[in-house]
Design a protein that fits this description.
Length: 561
Amino acid sequence: MQDDVKRLYLTLFVAMIALFLFNKIFPKPSEEALEAEKQAAEEVIKKEEVLKQDIAKIEDITPVLSVKKALTTDTRLTFANNDIHGSIRLKGARLDSLYLKKYKESLEADSSEIELLTPAKTQLPYYTDMGWVSTDPNIKVPNTNSVWTVKQSALSPESPITLEWDNGQGLKFIRRISLDDAYLFKIQQSVENNTSKEVVLYPYALISKTIEDADLPSSVVHEGMIGVVDNNLKEIKYKDLKKDRERSFKTRDGWAGFSDRYWFTAFILNHEHKHTIKYSQTKENTFQVDYIGEGLKIQPKSCISNDIMLFAGAKEIKLLDNYKKAYNINKFDLAVDFGWYYFLTKPFFYILDELYHFIGNMGWAILLFAALLRLLMFPVANKSFENMSKMKKIQPKLAALQEKYGNDKAALQRATLEMYSKEKINPAAGCLPMLIQIPVFFSLYKVLNISIEIRHAPFIGWIKDLSAPDPLLLSQWTHLPIPSLLDIGVWPIIMGITMFIQQKLSPAPTNKDQARAFMLMPLIFTFMLGHFASGLVIYWTLSNILALIQQKAIMAKNGVE
């Protein structure tokens, strides 16, 4: 009993010492510190409210102008390089017109260039804004109506530009913009304080996009808002923001923007300051990604600056990888939706790309890729086909066992397993190649859906776009009114035939119901894959043909008809 009391006192003593040391090492914040923390929190709320009310507000104007008319309404400064061209509206210094030179809307000869960014007063505006906000209502900062001055006539990789705006209160705002040879803009925002007092300003940037219908079902590729915040990828669907209205994240670095299937816009933060990134819906079918940085103090007769980069262009995987390395942009390649099998999808793309540059045609590159995969899987497939040949050889014996035991399923199962053991057959071995093929199939499916390098890539004959379904449809060469679900092209039919022949060479299930379902599989796959990318169907067809040759050779070796 006394020992228990001693231990209790000792425990209380040690706890008191620990509490004392904790308070010494981690002292309780003073009243001043608590008040400063409270003020800082209120300041954050206040500056975000300013951004929300004054800067992030979308012009509430009924879209009546055509893009051509909108581009001639205000004075503009043009820009161009090998890949893009467009203009910056000097009123508001807004980048709201950008075209992609290398990519067309369709395969038609007179097809127009892809228009990525469009002005605010058009039907589907898509533009960027940036600048400064102040929590002091007496300080004038540039807004969408501020007209900036510029000395240069155009922006190009060889000729950066400098925009200026004076608020008439002693603050001069300067924006230096440079453009590389592809899709990256570098913007340095500076403020000169020519007053006699300290000024605090907060840098911001936003991208606003209006889409036709936010409730459209998602495709196999993520299309919506995207970003990397604190090393975590954020993919936000438009319809999700219809419920939440907005989502906000704190980060020191990262990037955020909008992702389409092949196109992408994002601002890339610098690593020096903390930022608040927000994804929001501003009105019906209009969405916005913005950030606001921490307050920067500008002492009298001094200057501060804030750097930001803007990507606006095509999701060229190699280019994104180069930007990722050159500017240390965390996970920038994930702007491309590689899917669950990232570890396969991305290498597959690089292999296909190398084969394409070696052969000169993406279709033949896909066929060579299928052959190489079959070669790689040759030992596994060989073992599987050996097993399947033995299974087919004992089909008459299995049928005899079924006749012998009738409805006695337990006895039939024991006898069947004994026969498998005697013949050294593993009935599950035939599934292994299919299990390996599943991630390969989905990875290649992703590559053909996400890679802009495959968009509009032709093959032989009638295949002009390997990323699109086979265009030579049943309705075209039969002239029959076939429902769209059943209206498939020639390549899917060829693929279905190869699957049917492959099935005939394989042992049939002993269960009659399973055998009937098994017989329907080629037909189901034919119509299902008939609406997939033709490049994927071509790959699957050749893979089946190579498997048939290998299977037939092994059957001949084992004396199986």
